[in-house]
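Why should sequence recovery work at all? Because a backbone constrains its sequence more than one might expect. Tight turns favour small or flexible residues, buried strands favour hydrophobic ones, and helices have their own preferences. The token representation captures these environments compactly. In the example below, the structure is given first.
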């Protein structure tokens, strides 16, 4: 599905009574079955919702990339007809979790045509050996844009985002803590009892089919190293690299505020003094 089709905002009414809501429509191109272009609804938003087309979100991401001190390349794009995410990774190594296992900085911009995800941005981490993406809401601030790229205030918004990226690249306490937590996670053993506790008490929202695939990948790839780090990477590897992601898998990755790492931390915290902040896979 092409995420960059033209859009328009159409006022809604019922029997002549105007509504404060608007329908967001995408212009689909003519085809064999539809000789003329056709406007199809993608969502409904309020009158104050900052509606930005996905092409401008992509351009904003590339503009931020060009003006920051880091070099970013496009990694992946997600669009399901309503929600949109544009991810980029850099070659800036943020730290080493274990020998030969580095993580680098990345960033993700998001948007939606149904109001479910406002035009925004957050930094993230990439595991370089497999380019799995990870996001931490505790260690990386999210940013919601209040102005669209064409507005006169866009320059101020852009400057703030670029400054945040450059400061993070220079090193922050939050980033250092996050890398240290990942190293601690690598040292934690996940037993079968703890895996069951994690699933049934903390990660019930994950569909059984997806959880089964995660555990299958974890037990197969980990060999004899059943660490929390390997469990996290089993999940990100499965969900981040799906050839045809669904809204369910991508919601787990990007749009739902729960975490494999948080669950592992809670389960194992009773058996160790390690405290690991909430990390959501991106």
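From this structural description, the recovered sequence reads:
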């Amino acid at each position: 599905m092409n995420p960059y089709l033209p859009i328009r905002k159409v006022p809604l009414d019922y029997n002549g009574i105007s509504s404060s809501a608007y329908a967001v429509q995408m212009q689909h191109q003519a085809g064999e079955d539809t000789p003329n272009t056709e406007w199809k609804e993608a969502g409904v938003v309020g009158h104050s919702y900052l509606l930005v087309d996905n092409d401008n979100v992509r351009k904003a991401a590339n503009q931020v990339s060009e003006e920051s001190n880091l070099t970013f390349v496009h990694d992946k794009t997600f669009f399901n007809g309503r929600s949109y995410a544009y991810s980029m990774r850099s070659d800036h190594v943020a730290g080493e979790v274990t020998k030969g296992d580095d993580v680098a900085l990345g960033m993700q911009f998001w948007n939606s045509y149904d109001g479910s995800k406002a035009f925004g941005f957050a930094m993230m981490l990439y595991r370089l050996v497999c380019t799995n993406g990870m996001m931490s809401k505790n260690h990386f601030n999210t940013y919601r844009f209040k102005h669209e790229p064409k507005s006169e205030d866009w320059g101020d918004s852009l400057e703030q985002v670029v400054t945040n990226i450059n400061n993070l690249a220079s090193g922050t306490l939050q980033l250092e803590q996050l890398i240290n937590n990942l190293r601690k996670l690598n040292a934690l053993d996940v037993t079968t009892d703890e895996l069951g506790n994690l699933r049934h008490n903390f990660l019930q929202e994950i569909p059984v089919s997806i959880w089964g695939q995660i555990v299958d990948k974890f037990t197969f790839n980990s060999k004899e190293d059943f660490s929390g780090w390997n469990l996290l990477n089993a999940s990100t590897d499965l969900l981040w690299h799906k050839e045809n992601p669904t809204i369910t898998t991508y919601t787990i990755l990007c749009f739902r505020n729960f975490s494999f790492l948080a669950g592992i931390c809670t389960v194992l915290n009773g058996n160790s003094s390690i405290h690991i902040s909430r990390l959501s896979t991106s």
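A few observations help interpret the result. The chain is about 35% helix and 30% strand.
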